[in-house]
Amino acid sequence: MTDTVRLDGKVAIVTGAGRGIGRAAAQALAKAGAAVVVNDIDADVAGQVVEEISAAGGRAASEIVPIGSVEAAQACVARAVGSFGRLDIMCCNAGILRDRVLWNTSEEDFDAVVATHLRGTFTCAQAAARHFRAEGHEGRLILVSSIAGQRGNFGQTAYSAAKAGIAAMARTWSLELAKAKVTVNAIVPNALTRMVATIPALADYVEQAERGEPLPQSLRADLGVGTVEDVAPLFVFLASDKAAHITGQCIGIGGDRLSLWSHPQEAAFELREGGWTADTIAARWEDGIGRALQDVGVDLTGLESGKD
C-alpha cells in the first residue's frame, strides 16, 4: 500500500525518543512528514536519532531533559515552537523500570517510576493542552499505557500502577478536551525492548529481535509481541487526520496484532432492597456475582513453546 497517512506540516514531540518505542515512533512520524522534537536524557542517543531523521530528509531537533517536572514539559513545548513554529502532537512515551514485588519495592523506586511515567505524562499533556487551547487549533495527545496497567503483572507494583493511571487519564482528558478538538488516546504496546529484557520469558526474544532475526509467528500473532517498529505505525495513525474522530481509547499493538481494549465496567451486579450486610453478601456470593470473578495478570503462556 502507498503511504497515504501523512503528517505534512505537523510538529510532534516524542518523549523518551532516544531508544526503543520512542525512537521508532519519532522516526515513523518524521517519515510521514512531521517535524519532530526528540526528547531524551541522553544527548548522544537523542542526537543520533536527530541525525538519522535529517539524513532521511526529515526535520528534527532534540531537547535533553528528564521528563517529570513542569519545567521539563514546558521546555519540550518551547523547543517545538522555537524550532518549528508550532505544536500539533504530544507523544508521552518516556519511562523507566524499577521492577520489584510489593514487599521489596522501596519508596525511592516507586516514586521514580511514578514521577517519570505518571507525573511525566501529566505534565507533558498539560503543557501541550494549554498550548493547543491558547493557539485555538486541534491537537493530539498520544499516551503510552501497558498491558501491565490493564491486567497487572507480577513484580511490577509501580509500573502497573502508573500505566493504569495513564489509561484513566486518557479517558478523562478525552472528555475535558473534546470541545477544543484535541483527541486523547493511550497506546498499549507489546514490543521487545531492553525494558522488558528483565522478564526471563522474554530475554532471549529481545536478543533475537536486536540481532534482526525474524520472530516466531506464534509470538507475533498469538501473543501479539513484536518489535518497536511494529508499534510505531499506530503513533502515525493516531496523529493523523484519519483518526480525528477517535478519542478516549486504549489501543493495543504488537507483532501482527492490533486490538481495542475494553473500558472497566461492572461484570455483574445484584440488588437487595435495604442494602447489604456481611452475612447477606456471604450468603449470596457463590451463587451471585462470585460467578463472574475476573482473572488477572499478563498471560505469557506459550512463550517457551513458541521459541525457535
Please tell me what the overall shape is. Answer: globular
Radius of gyration: 21 Å
Strand count, sense and barrel status of the largest sheet are:
8 strands, mixed
CATH topology: Rossmann fold
The assigned structural class equals alpha/beta
In percent, how helical is the residue content?
40-55%
Total DSSP E strands: 8
End-to-end span in angstroms? 31 Å
> Strand percentage, roughly?
5-15%
> Order of strands in the sheet with the most strands?
3-2-1-4-5-6-7-8
Q: What integer is the average pLDDT?
A: 92
CATH class: Alpha Beta
Number of helices: 10
N-to-C SSE series?
EHEHEHEHEHHEHHHEEH
Number of domains in the coordinates?
Answer: 1
Uncertain residue ranges: none
Q: What do we call the CATH homologous superfamily?
A: NAD(P)-binding Rossmann-like Domain
Q: How does CATH name the architecture?
A: 3-Layer(aba) Sandwich
Features:
308 residues; alpha/beta; Rossmann fold; eight-stranded mixed beta sheet; 10 helices; 43% helix; 14% strand
Notes on the structure:
It is built from 10 helices and 8 strands. By secondary structure, it is α/β, with parallel strands linked by helices. The protein has one domain (11-261): Rossmann fold (3-Layer(aba) Sandwich), CATH 3.40.50.720. Strand 4, helix 4 (107-135) and strand 5 (139-144) form a beta-alpha-beta unit. The model has no long low-confidence stretch (mean pLDDT 92).
Q: In a few lines, what is going on in this structure?
A:
The protein is an alpha/beta fold and 308 residues long. Helix content is 43%, strand content 14%.
